[in-house]
Amino acid sequence: MKIDDIARLAGVSKSAVSLALNNKTGVSEATRQHVLEISRAHGYTPRTFKSNKVLSKKSSIIRFIACKNTDIVTEHYESLPFFNELIHHLTAFAGVLDHTLIISSIPIQNLKGDIEALENEQPSDGILMLGTNLPAQMIESLQSIHPHMVFLDTYFEHIDASFVAINNYLGGYQAGKHLLSLGYRNIGYVQSEVRIFNFIKRKEGFLAALKEEKLGLEETLTFAMNPMSVMSQEAFKKAVGEVEQFPSAIFCENDYMAISAIKTFQELDIKVPGQVAVMGFDNILEAKVISPELTTIHVKKDVIAKTAMDVLMRKISGQDESHMQISVNTEVFERKSCRVPNMDTEDHR
C-alpha cells in the first residue's frame, strides 16, 4: 500500500494524503480522518507514526459514497459545513460499532462502474450512498451493486429502497409559519439555481404555509442564487436593486444562500433584520458566526447519521433486510436575523 493507492481509494490528491498523514494544515478535518481511516484499514503506517506503535486491527468496512458533480456535491464537498458535519457523525457512529468508514468521491459519469470496481477491489459490509443530487433512475440502477445499501439525503416514494432523508417539506412549512407568526406578510423567496429534490420539497412546504393565510409568492420577490456560495452574489444584488416594493422578510432554501443574502444586503447598506429579515435552512456552524446570527431550520445531522447507520447495521446483521423510507423532522432555531416587525411600518406588512 502506497500513498498513490490511498489517494485513489480516498478520492483525493497525493498532496492531500501527505498533509493528512503528517498532521499538517491544508485539508479539512473530515478529509484528514478519512485518509487516516483508509490507511489504518489497509495496514499502512505513516513514517510520522512511531515504529513500535501498532495500528488497530482491520475492522469491517462500511463504504460512504458521494457522487460528485459541478452543482451541489462539488470536488471538495467534504469541506462544506453540512457534509462535513454529516461525515463526522457517520465516522463516529461507525467507530462505535467497530467498523471503518471508507469515504469515496466518484464522478457521476461512471458512478455504477466505479462503485463496482471499488467493491471488487475491497468488498464492504454495506454502502451508505449520498443521494443528494441523484435522479431516481440512477438510484434504481445502483441497487443491484450491493444487498446492503442505504441512500441518504433524498428519497423517492416510488422506489423500493432504504432512504434516510430530511423532512424538507416540514422544514419549509415551519419556516413559512415562523415568519408569518412574527407578522411578516410581504415575504420574498431565494431559491437555488439548481433544482434538486430537497429544494423542491422545501418550497412546497413554504408555499403551503403561505396558502393557509391566503398568501402566495410574488414572482418579482422570487430570486435565484448559487446554492453553494457564501459570498455576495452580483446577480442577486442586481435583482434586489430592481425590486419596486422590497420584501420585509426572505426565506432562503439553505444557509449558504441566506449568508450570501446577508452579505449582499450589507454591501447595499440594507439592515438585517431592521429592513429585511433573513431565514435559512440547515443550521450549519456558520449560521452562528455571521452577523446577525442566522435564524434557520435546524437539520438534525446527527440523527440522520445514526438512523442511517442503524438501518444499515440491521441489514448487515440480518435482523431486518426490508426496505424503509425515514424522514427526520426539523425544527426552527431562532437567532437574530429575524425579529417581530414594527407593525406601524408599511414595509413590514
Keywords:
6-stranded mixed sheet, transcription, globular, 434 Repressor (Amino-terminal Domain), 6-stranded parallel sheet, alpha/beta, 349 residues, disordered C terminus, Rossmann fold
Summarize the structure.
It comes from Paenibacillus donghaensis. The protein has 349 residues and is α/β, with parallel strands linked by helices.
Q: What topology emerges from the helices and strands here?
A:
Layout: H1 3-10, H2 14-21, H3 29-41, E1 60-68, H4 81-96, E2 99-107, H5 111-121, E3 126-130, H6 136-142, E4 149-152, E5 163-166, H7 168-181, E6 187-192, H8 197-212, E7 222-225, H9 234-241, E8 249-252, H10 255-267, E9 277-282, E10 295-298, H11 301-317, E11 325-328, E12 331-333
Parallel strand pairs: 1-2, 1-3, 3-4, 4-5, 5-11, 6-7, 6-8, 8-9, 9-10
Antiparallel strand pairs: 10-12
Helix pairs in contact: 1-2, 1-3, 2-3, 3-4, 4-11, 7-8
Keywords: DNA-binding, Transcription, Transcription regulation
GO molecular function: DNA-binding transcription factor activity; transcription cis-regulatory region binding
InterPro entries: HTH_LacI, LacI/GalR-like_sensor, Lambda_DNA-bd_dom_sf, Peripla_BP_I
